[in-house]
């Protein structure tokens, strides 16, 4: 019984082995068939690619042979027909030249015959000659007239580009404001020379002498004198130059030396335009178009930026050198039509020839204690305590018409008296007039920073401390700059 079971199990095992062997054989057979099919496909693809490439090469070869044959045939035809083509070209060119020659001969004959008849006709010849002469004269006269008008407009009416500010009347001022023009230039108001300017007594006395000298020379048509204003910035040089022009009955024109160098080659031309423009001032006579031209005061601010030394350690460009030479040429002869006022913070940098052009030098120094106190009071009343009278309010409305649409707030000045202003003047030692002006303006702004504008000691002290600190910083900067200047210019 056991033997029978063992035999049955063995038979099952053999049957399973045979099935697995048969399946293995089938898989191997399928894989082999698949591999053979892939190889067959690859061989077919390779054969197809080879066939296509061969056909392409054959086609290229045939096209090349066809083109060569075509070119050879065309070349052969051209070689055979060369003589015939050459003869055709020569015949055509001969005909063209003959035709052109005949046309030229006929044209010359016609022109010659016409000229002969025209010359024999004296009346026609004279008319042509007079017509050509008249056309030339009219054209030349028209061109000269345009140049003359352009020169007149540019030299008498238009303001030169280098002039930043001037009191001289522009052309449109006459027909816009004739009454104002008449009152301003024929009935000028007499104002004090030092109005709005607070300087040391000795400097004020010297400036009054200079002003009287300018007035007397203008009245007697004597040449004007050239002046040099030098000193620290913000000490009133520009302000006094304007006042001097107004008091002396002159127009003023302000230019800046720093504007000259950037012009390059045009600097000389623009400088000549300024002096041509100044030469049109006839010292009190009525000009064409009824424009009343007076003497002119040319104020050159920051003159050291332009009229620098031409010889020394510092090199200047050729264009700036030419501009200085042009300025020297035009200012070499005293004039009764214009005067020159130079202003600089560094007069030692001016060229020697420029120094020779100066007739009088005036030193504008920083204000002393008394002047500082007067300046502070002047600007405090001007900015923080405006005119309250009826005439004063009318003047303010005329100057600023928009204030009639706003409710004016007045500053309430508290705890401020002359003794306190004197104390501030002592503490602001070394301040210039411009710095004192800015200080008062800062007080004004600080007061209006509050809902209820009030200017008291606390507000003044906070602003003053800030400005004193700024002044100390500036002094340190200036000390460093002076040391650097001495190092770079040991000869000065």
Short descriptors:
single chain, Rossmann fold, 492 residues, alpha/beta, Helicase, Ruva Protein, domain 3, 64% helix, 3 domains, six-stranded mixed beta sheet, 8 strands
Question: Can you characterise this structure?
Answer:
This protein has 492 residues and is an alpha/beta fold. It has three domains: 121-157; 162-365, Rossmann fold, CATH 3.40.50.300; 370-488, Helicase, Ruva Protein, domain 3 (Orthogonal Bundle). The chain is built from 14 helices and eight strands. It has helices at 2-120, 122-157, 171-176, 178-186, 201-219, 237-247, 267-279, 318-330, 352-357, 369-384, 390-399, 418-427, 433-448, 457-488, and strands at residues 163-166, 227-230, 251-256, 296-301, 338-344, 360-363, 412-413, 454-455. Strands 1-3-4-5-2-6 form a six-stranded mixed sheet. A two-stranded parallel ribbon has the order 7-8. Strand 3, helix 7 and strand 4 (296-301) form a beta-alpha-beta unit. Helix 2 (122-157) crosses helix 7 (267-279). The radius of gyration is 50 Å and the shape is flat. The model is unreliable at 172-177 and 284-292 (pLDDT under 50).
Provide a concise account of the structure shown.
The protein has 14 helices and 8 strands.
């Amino acid at each position: 019984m056991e033997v029978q079971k063992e035999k049955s199990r063995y038979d099952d095992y053999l049957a399973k082995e045979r099935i697995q062997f048969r399946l293995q054989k089938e898989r191997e057979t399928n894989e082999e068939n698949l591999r053979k099919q892939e190889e067959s496909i690859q061989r077919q693809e390779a054969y197809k690619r080879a066939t296509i490439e061969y056909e392409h090469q054959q086609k290229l070869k045939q096209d090349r042979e066809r083109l060569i044959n075509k070119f050879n045939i065309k070349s052969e035809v051209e070689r055979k027909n060369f003589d015939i083509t050459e003869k055709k070209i020569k015949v055509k060119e001969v005909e063209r030249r003959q035709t052109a020659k005949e046309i030229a001969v006929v044209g010359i004959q016609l022109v010659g015959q016409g000229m002969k008849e025209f010359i024999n006709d004296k009346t026609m010849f004279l008319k042509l000659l007079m017509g050509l002469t008249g056309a030339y004269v009219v054209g030349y006269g028209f061109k000269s007239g345009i140049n003359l008008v352009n020169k007149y407009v540019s030299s008498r009416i238009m303001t030169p580009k280098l002039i930043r500010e001037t009191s001289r009347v522009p052309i449109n001022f006459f027909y816009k404001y004739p009454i104002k023009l008449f009152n301003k230039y024929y009935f000028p108001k007499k104002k004090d020379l030092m109005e709005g300017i607070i300087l040391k007594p000795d400097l004020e006395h010297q400036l009054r002498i200079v002003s009287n000298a300018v007035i007397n020379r203008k009245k007697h048509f004597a040449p004007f004198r050239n002046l040099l204003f030098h000193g620290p910035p913000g000490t009133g040089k520009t302000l006094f130059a304007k006042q001097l022009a107004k008091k002396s009955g002159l127009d003023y024109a302000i230019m800046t030396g720093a504007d000259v160098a950037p012009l390059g080659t045009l600097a000389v031309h623009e400088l000549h335009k300024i002096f041509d423009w100044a030469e049109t001032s006839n010292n009190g006579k009525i000009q064409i178009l009824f424009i009343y031209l007076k003497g002119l005061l040319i104020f050159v601010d920051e003159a050291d930026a332009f009229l620098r030394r031409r010889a020394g350690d510092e090199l200047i460009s050729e264009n700036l050198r030419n501009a200085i030479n042009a300025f020297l040429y035009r200012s070499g002869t005293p004039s009764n039509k214009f005067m020159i006022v130079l202003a600089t913070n560094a007069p030692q940098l001016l060229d020697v020839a420029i120094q020779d052009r100066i007739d009088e030098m005036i030193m504008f120094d920083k204000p002393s204690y008394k002047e500082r106190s007067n300046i502070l009071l002047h600007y405090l009343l001007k900015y923080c305590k405006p005119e309250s009278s009826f005439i004063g309010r009318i003047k303010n409305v005329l100057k600023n018409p928009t204030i009639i649409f706003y409710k004016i707030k007045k500053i309430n000045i508290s705890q401020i008296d002359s003794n306190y202003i004197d104390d501030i003047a002592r503490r602001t030692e070394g301040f210039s007039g411009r710095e004192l002006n800015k200080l008062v303006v800062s007080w004004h702004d600080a007061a209006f920073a509050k809902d209820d504008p009030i200017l008291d000691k606390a507000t003044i002290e906070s602003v003053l401390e800030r400005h004193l600190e700024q002044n100390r910083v500036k002094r340190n900067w200036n000390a460093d700059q002076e040391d650097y200047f001495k190092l770079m210019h040991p000869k000065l």
